[in-house]
């Protein structure tokens, strides 16, 4: 039985966290420019930026992890990498004082696993230059 390739899952998680930081910074720059131009962004846009950063980071993590392993294991590694990204984000938010309930945390963990699973499947697709 094959175990999880920790290097692939770890590299996927790091790529996902870095993409989250990048997406968050781009989103903050857009919000800042909107505020400078006098556009009222409100809370909805802020939550949308945070959602795109989180779910985009989970997708990138799953895709990278799925790309680094054989296609048969891509889905599992994608889910593990996305769950690792979610665990880091959830840990920081809980330490910062988030009032999230355990059911909410479990629901978002399920969403992270599904996103990572699908992204890993996409990343693990056969490529024309594969010699398998």
Structure described in brief:
This protein has 132 residues and is mainly α. The chain contains four helices and no strands. The protein is globular and about 55 Å long.
Throw out a few tags for this protein:
132 residues, mainly alpha, 4 helices
Q: Could you walk me through the main structural features you see in this protein, from its secondary elements to its overall organization?
A:
It is a single chain. This protein has 132 residues and is mostly helical. The protein contains 4 helices and no strands. The two termini are 20 Å apart. Helix 1 (6-36) packs antiparallel against helix 2 (42-67), helix 2 runs antiparallel to helix 3 (74-95) and helix 2 (42-67) crosses helix 4 (102-123).
Largest sheet: none
The proportion of strand residues reads under 5%
Oligomer: single chain
Point out poorly predicted stretches.
none
Q: What is the C-alpha radius of gyration, as a whole number of Å?
A: 17 Å
Structural class: mainly alpha
Helix content: over 70%
Q: Average pLDDT value? A: 89
The end-to-end span amounts to 20 Å
Q: Count all strands and give the number.
A: 0
Query: What best-fitting shape do the alpha-carbon axes yield?
Result: globular
How many helices? The count is 4
| Helix/strand order | HHHH
In terms of topology, how is this protein built?
Blueprint: H1 6-36, H2 42-67, H3 74-95, H4 102-123
Helix pairs in contact: 1-2, 1-3, 2-3, 2-4, 3-4
């Amino acid at each position: 039985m094959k175990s999880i390739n920790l290097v692939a899952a770890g590299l996927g998680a790091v790529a996902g966290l870095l993409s989250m930081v990048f997406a968050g910074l781009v989103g903050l720059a857009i919000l800042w420019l909107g505020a400078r131009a006098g556009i009222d962004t409100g809370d909805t846009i802020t939550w949308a930026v945070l959602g795109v950063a989180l779910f985009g980071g989970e997708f990138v993590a799953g895709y990278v992890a799925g790309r680094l392993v054989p296609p048969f294991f891509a889905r599992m590694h994608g889910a593990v990498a996305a769950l690792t990204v979610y665990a880091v984000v959830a840990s920081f938010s809980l330490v910062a004082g988030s009032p999230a309930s355990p059911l909410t945390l479990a629901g978002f963990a399920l969403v992270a696993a599904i996103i990572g699973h699908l992204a890993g499947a996409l990343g693990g697709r056969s490529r024309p230059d594969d010699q398998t």
